[in-house]
Task: inverse folding
């Protein structure tokens, strides 16, 4: 399951840089609860262990920070690209 979590974290972080809109901060707020709901319902994985809520909170915070950093990086890069007018 660690591979899935790392892959999802990378995709969430990349979404901030690729999309570059502030509404992408909603992606982790939807993705991770659905992921943990699937674990709890045995849709995938082997369920949740003790203290899962602390892991869920930590992964949501890390995801939100990574999305915000991706959005900020895209903003900085776009501000340095010259725009030509006709």
Result:
């Amino acid at each position: 399951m660690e591979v899935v979590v790392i892959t999802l974290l990378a995709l969430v972080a990349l979404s901030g840089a690729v999309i570059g809109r502030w509404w992408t901060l909603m992606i982790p707020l939807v993705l991770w609860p659905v992921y943990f709901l699937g674990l709890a319902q045995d849709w995938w994985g082997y369920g949740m262990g003790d203290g899962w809520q602390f892991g869920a909170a930590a992964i949501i915070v890390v995801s939100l920070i990574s999305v915000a950093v991706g959005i900020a990086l895209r903003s900085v890069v776009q501000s340095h690209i010259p725009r030509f007018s006709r």
Notes: The first helix runs from residue 2 to 19. The chain has a mean pLDDT of 89. The chain has three helices and no strands. The two ends are 52 Å apart (CA to CA).
